[in-house]
């Protein structure tokens, strides 16, 4: 398996030297990353019984499928894993009755029980990266196969039109190392989320101002006061053991990364799973639309059956997950910054 994927990555490195790639580097690198994610997550979905022949078939499919189809399949594959994760969380946290309360389990115990069920959980402790800015690092506790969704990037989601509301704007990156941007320009600020919490609770803009450690709260409050936009509250599971992607460090040049960033659009029609998606949208337009339409919103059937089930018209939360690029076992999670990444500050330079 590793040999086959290494062959593909060699081809990517050859492509990177071409004049076309140099001119359209960000776009082509993003497409290549989706190609890799298509293979990694498809292989993972086959389960532990997948063999080299399966890997070869997936690589052949990746060479023939359109970029759009690959994106859709990556969403399907990631969502399949997210649904399994949410099912396990429900089994651990929800009593087998109609009582509308979750079990009073501490986050540490929940993490251990998750590991017993899916094979891994996450820890945050001092990084082994020899850099003075590394500080805390993210560690996988247990074992995970290639293509596994290792962590979810939590926090507040900002579309480009709402960039001015990011605390510290326009020089937001200088003050916040937990801000990341997707290829489509969606920014996610994980700083308000921090380490999470010990309860399932309503998380909204007031919570953000209380828990954000290094933020110009005056600027945030003024922006909210002078605007009609807000982060309306959602009941989120703050004990979520996988909502720690923002603690993953970048490796040194001598160290090979073991996870990659994957865009994930969570369909808001999946109301039963919403509490385990550790994000809220600034402005919240998509979720407000869902509330207005309620149960009348057109919803396709199972998301497990194929590409045609992924409806592009369904409102989504645009977040990120980290996907394993190799089999992992009790090690620090190291993330390579993708070439398509850009800073929210970029246009201000």
Automatic annotation (TrEMBL):
It comes from the Eukaryota. CDD domains: SET_SETD9. InterPro entries: SETD9. PANTHER family: C5ORF35 (PTHR33524), SET DOMAIN-CONTAINING PROTEIN (PTHR33524:SF1). This is 8-amino-7-oxononanoate synthase. It comes from Gossypium arboreum.
């Amino acid at each position: 398996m590793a040999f086959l994927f290494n062959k593909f990555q060699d081809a990517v490195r050859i492509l990177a030297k071409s004049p076309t790639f140099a001119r359209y580097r960000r776009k082509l690198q993003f497409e290549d990353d989706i190609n890799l994610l298509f293979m990694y997550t498809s292989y993972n979905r086959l389960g532990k019984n997948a063999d080299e022949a399966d890997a070869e078939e997936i690589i052949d499919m990746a060479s023939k499928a359109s970029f759009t189809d690959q994106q859709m399949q990556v969403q399907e594959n990631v969502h399949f894993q997210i649904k399994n994760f949410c099912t396990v969380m429900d089994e651990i946290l929800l009593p087998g009755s109609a009582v509308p309360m979750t079990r009073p389990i501490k986050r540490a115990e929940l993490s251990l029980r998750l590991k017993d069920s899916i094979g891994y959980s996450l820890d945050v402790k001092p990084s082994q990266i020899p850099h003075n800015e590394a500080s805390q690092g993210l560690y996988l506790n247990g074992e995970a196969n290639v293509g596994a969704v290792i962590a979810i990037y939590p926090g507040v989601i900002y579309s480009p039109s709402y960039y001015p509301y990011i605390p510290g704007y326009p020089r937001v990156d200088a003050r916040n190392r937990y801000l990341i941007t997707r290829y489509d320009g969606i920014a996610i600020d994980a700083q308000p989320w921090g380490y999470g919490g010990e309860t399932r609770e309503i998380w909204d803009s007031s919570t953000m101002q209380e828990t954000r450690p290094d933020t110009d709260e005056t600027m945030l409050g003024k922006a909210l006061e002078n605007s009609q936009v807000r982060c309306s509250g959602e009941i989120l599971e703050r004990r979520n053991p996988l909502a720690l992607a923002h603690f993953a460090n970048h490796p040194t040049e001598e160290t090979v990364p073991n996870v990659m960033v994957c865009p994930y659009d969570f369909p808001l029609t999946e109301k039963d799973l919403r509490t385990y998606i550790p994000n809220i949208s600034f402005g919240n337009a998509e979720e407000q639309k869902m509330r207005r339409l309620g149960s009348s919103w057109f919803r396709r059937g199972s998301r497990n059956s194929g590409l045609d089930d992924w409806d592009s018209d369904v409102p989504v939360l645009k977040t990120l997950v980290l996907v394993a690029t190799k089999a992992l076992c009790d090690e620090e999670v190291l993330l390579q910054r993708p070439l398509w990444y850009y800073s929210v500050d970029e246009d201000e330079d």
